[in-house]
Amino acid sequence: MKVFLETTYIKQQHYTELINYYQDIEFVFEVDPACEILVGFYEGVPDKFFDQFKHLKLVILISSGYDHLNLSYMKQRNIIVTNAKGLYDIQIAEDVVAKMLYFNRNIIDHQKNMDDHIWKHQPQMYELYEQQALILGAGSIGQAIAKRLKGFDMETIGYKKSYEEVPYFDKIITCDKELNAHFMTCDYVVISLPLNKYTRHMINEKTLSLMKPSTLIINIGRGEIIDQDALIKALNEGVIRGAAIDVTYPEPLPENDPLWDAKNLFITPHNASASPMVTHRRMALIIKQIDLFISNKQLFNVVL
Description:
It is a single chain. By secondary structure, the chain is α/β, with parallel strands linked by helices. Helices cover 31% and strands 15% of the residues. Helix 1 links the parallel strand 1 and strand 2. The longest helix has 17 residues.
């Protein structure tokens, strides 16, 4: 069996653990029509690229999101697609907490004072203790975030499409009426949703206007879930306290984009999933999927 490994987002040497694990599988980095499995991200890759793989049966995505892939095409060819759900939970959850504390503990002001050799006490206006966090998306990443926020004795509200009890959440909501009600009461809005026709611009001028002036938004989902023009306006006019975003639209964010200059905004370059353990975790996930595929057993994280 042959497996194609994409090197656009993962360097060839980072596949070493995977390649060494199997002795009877040929891994290739160039297009080979005989490949049955493709591993990679495949953002911006046209359908004609996949046309080259005549015997393709499985695409193992290394991303949690899969909105960039043409699932209709994959379905038409009866190709199974799996994503990397659960792979990035730990580091993204830690990143969310870090961004909350960045704002709450005036980190930027302390850093500036340290650079200028100034000893100056800063008033601290916010805590995490007993605050309410509205987490949009109660999947594996949302659960990992809620788990850590419970350590701060926060109230955690989760939003998802259908109701079920989810660990680490005090309450799960599913309808727009409940969602709008909690936009009005929450102290933090954390976005961990995939991008689709229902979530695009879910955070817009209307929903932003419902929030308290002390509300902080954190987005580690997808950039287009927020209407960026509306966010810029809300930040510059003090409608909300601030925002910390790891995702934008487009990416990379152009140098002249007005988002850079919005008030009380902290931008990181889609870096929340970074971790010293991510390569090992990624390879372990791929190995598990390939083992199941070889054994004709049910795959996990199947999106199609």
